[in-house]
Each structure stands twice: as structure tokens, then as C-alpha cells.
Amino acid sequence: MSMNADALRQEIVEILPQLRRFAYSLTGAPHDADDLLQATVERLLDRGAPTDVDLRKWSFRICKNIWIDEIRARKVRTTAAVSGKVGGEGKVDGERIVMDRITLTQVNNAMDGLPDEQRAALSLVAIEGFSYAEAADILDTPIGTIMSRIARARRALSNNINVEGMELKSGRIPSGARQ
After folding, report:
1. Residue 72 and which of 36, 49, 66, 79 are 20 to 30 A apart at CA?
2. What is the model's pTM?
3. Between vectors from CA 53 to CA 69 and to CA 115, what angle results, nearest 5°?
4. Residue 79 is inside which H or E element, if any?
């Protein structure tokens, strides 16, 4: 049994900002996040949601699953392009310019450097406010794994961003700079 279409639309509108942030945390690029958000909302509207589920959790799980499918498809396309079966342009791997103090850009760059699993877990808990148990449910992962991923993500971010305003580092913060 599905939710009423009007109620579903209303709930989707309410969670869109959170869902967009999550999509951006998964993709790391605004245009990919917008595409992922659109695909997620389309799937929610087309298929509906069971009445006995938390729509917020359900939509985050759908978003994550669509992104996993997209990553798999990109790997197939990349493999085909490299093998010569399909022609195409190469990807340009550029790095953003780092500012002298902590900024949103630095945090985004540091988050982009995290493995996908760590970024998704940290985004759900630290940005979206889900509990570890809820994040584990959304990502279909044991809670201990979520806790471990978040701890490793926080450690990596700490190593890459100096809290006193130094620039983003590729390695560790000098021991004298830590408190």
C-alpha cells in the first residue's frame, strides 16, 4: 500500500533541502547532485512509498542506491572508453585553489577526498542529523561499520584542515599546530 499522492508530494517538498545536501555529499559536484536529486524525486513520485516507512529514510536510501547505480554505469563507460570500444574525451582532474583559512571550499575539498562510504556516513550523521542507527539503516550497513567510517572520516578531515586557519594540507597537520 502506498502513501496518498498529495501527502507524498508535500513530504518530498519538506525534505528536498536535506536530500539535496546528501546528493551533493555523495557526488561532490552541483550538477551531478541536481541530476541525482531529480532522479530520486522522480522515482519517489513514480513508485510511491510504503505507508509504514519513514519517507526521509526511504528517500535517502533511494538516493544512495541511484548513486551506486550511476557509479557502476560510469565505471562500465570508462572501461569501454579505455579499452577502445567507445571513443570519448578524457576527464580533466583539476584541484580547487585553497584559501589561507578554513572556508566552506576547504571543507568541501576535504570531504571530496574522503572515500564514498566515509563521506556518505559522515554526511548523514554530521550534516543531516541522523543517529548512527538511522545512518546504518539508510546505508544498509552495520552500526559498528558506520561508527568506524565516521571516526576515520573525522580523523582524515582533522589531518587535512587546520582548525587555526592554516591552508588545506595533503598530509598531516604539523604537531605544533594541533591543540
Report:
1. 49
2. 0.54
3. 35
4. helix 55-82
